[in-house]
Amino acid sequence: MDERENNGILPEEEGGRIIDVNLTKEMQQSFLDYSMSVIVQRALPDVRDGLKPVHRRILYTMYENTLWPEKAYRKCADTVGSVLGRYHPHGDASVYDALVRLAQDFSMRYVLVDGHGNFGSIDGDPPAAYRYTEARMNKLSVQMLQDIDKDTVDFTPNYDDRLKEPTALPSHFPNILVNGSTGIAVGMATNIPPHNMGEVIDGMCCLIDNPDATLEDLMEHIKGPDFPTGGIIMGRSGIRAAYATGRGRIIVRARTEIEENEKTGRSKIIVTELPYMVNKARLIESIADLVKDKRIEGISNIDDHSDRNGMHIVIDVKRDASPQIVLNRLFTYTQLQSTFGVILLAIVGGEPKMLTLRQILEEYIKFQLEVITRRTQFDLKKAQDRAHILEGLMIALDFIDEVIKILRASKSIPEGKQALMERFGLDDPQAQAIVQMRLGQLTGLERAKVEEELAGLREKIADYLDILASEGRRLAIVKDEALEVKRKFSDERRTEIAAVSGEVDIEDLIPVEECVLTMTNFGYVKRQKMDTYHLQKRGGRGVTGMNRRDEDVATEIFVTGSHDYVLFFSSLGRVYKLKCYEIPEGSRTSRGMNIKNLLPLQPEEKVNSMIRVQAFDEDKYLVMVTKNGVIKRTKLSAYQNVRKGGLIAVDLDEGDSLSWVRVTSGHDDLLVATKKGMAIRFHETDARELSRTARGVRVMKLEEGDCIVGMSILREGGLVLTVTETGYGRLSEQDNYRLQKRGGKGLINYHTERFGDVAAIKVVDLDDDVILISEDGVIIRIAASGIRICARPSKGVRVMKLAPGSKVVTLARAPHEEDQVDDVAVEEDGDPEEGSDLPSEEESFEEE
Prior knowledge:
With 848 residues, the protein is of the alpha+beta class. Helices cover 30% and strands 24% of the residues.
């Protein structure tokens, strides 16, 4: 067989050059290349000028074609053809659609193209074909291209290397915020709302004047989005979230007014502004359908009286209907109220990046500093070159007669130029300038005029050098030029921002105080003020924490700040986030609220861990362990932006469940124990850092039928409590568990074949209480100090006597309470239940 055939390459005479490739690898690489092309070259705007490539190419082509605002309109077909032929190797429809959008005052807050003809409407009417419409640049788009001929931005070859196109426009205003952008790429999308130009420039100037300005400082100037169609934004919380994190949800309502006719007793709802990107014709059609289907009652007629003077939709309300109720239903069921999902995603340095408001302004200011620097360098070189020529002319004026004599004696221009250079020490550009002048001009030069121009150039050169040497000067220029754009083009805000009852920044109204959070075995959670648990002297009876109805007991108890975050991790591997103050406050004896009323849990989902987080520090980690022995370690900061519907914390295998979650410092030792009596101690860094949605790695080898029953962080002074399903338990020193590598079988923690399977482990202190719960709902609370400290494999003592067939199912650590009796199952009169299987104190601690 031919060697080429062995390589998978057929001879050219047998059908050409065919190369075998791995289909999987080729598809992966090709899709990756395609994805990056869509992300960078099509769907996402550049943070510097806020434009996608197609919009930038349209404006630059119009600039090249000198379609200035003061010149006549030109057919859009000409512009579209020029864009396609020079820079944009795609379909003409995509270019024309992009051009049309730049001219639509209901799509752009500040239009960048001056269109003439039918460019569509808010009713969704399509624009006329490009052979009928005309367009030119407007004064604002000129501001975006100003100084582009002064080497202010980089240029890159076009698709066929014939021409060069700019990678960004100089743009003397932050267009990415002013006009916003919407686009869907591959695996990501952007949705940046438009803003008021005056507010954005004021916010940028605030950041220039005060580089340490906070988000609140910036929002003093940038109030929120300002949509071209007006409307009313309901509340500020969504705005603040979007500016702080790059993501947020903004509720926008139509501007409406209720008119009442006292004579007829009938009312009308007048709609004068719609939420951004809402199609008016479809909205009216949807309202009519809802009335027809009787989902909205009380409407007798709908008319659209909109004209060139503005929008005017009239909704007639029946005489016996309440117009406010009808309006509320319209807000609920139609696009008179819509949600704008903010995603501040843009291209930064050639890569997509999620940005905050501050980061967008910082990137724009950095870009403008570069533009000013490059423009100044260009002007400096031009001034230096001209000054150099004038210095040569000054020499010529000083020796005018000799210059004329040399030129007359020369047989050719090169000879004359060379003679001037040798005689007066001129260089080629200076000599060339003298030679190219007519004799009459040379003799008629006025010395004062040359000296004046040269002096002016030297002043400019000194100024340019000062600008290049001083960032403060450059920042001042950025600020002054932006304020000039504001003066020329800024207008009044169109979108109102309304305060929402109940949505006032609630954190400002809630005092910062310590709280006790409690979660029970049955999923009830409550918040109590710390002073509920007042200090008592030794020997006191304590206070009742909660009534033990239905044999429930607190399994999670900790102290946290009222403004701290609480993360809830469920058995399905999801995480939910609440502020502490969002958990209802309960009395000492109340049960609290079921967690399912606070979190959108699925029917089979159960919260297994509750973690308090004061700040999502970059140097802290979350360690998660599942029942089937998978461990995952992720940065705590990865869980900062948890949606209301929850977030995937760990990708679980079928049949597995997330059971233990702990916050670690990055330097902790962990102890994991199994049902069949094995345990392993390892350093947390043995579990490598993984992404939020990753599956995790094996924590230890499990025998068939074995599973994980507990995970704890070892701490100085703590003791390891092991409790079996049969009610035996012991405390062990941490040194009994030597440090091993993650993934091994571990050490024998308990002889389960003799004393029963392990129910749980917990690291406790001697001054803690321990709560044990049995399968049949019996609860006992005992002092940890009453449990004997034994070596690792020992049986220990009986800590809970069980009814026949019952077993211990869970273990909780709680603060010690003196003479606590409330945790024992009791009747209404306070006496132990007759026939209770709870052991007496002597039975509980008898050594076996």
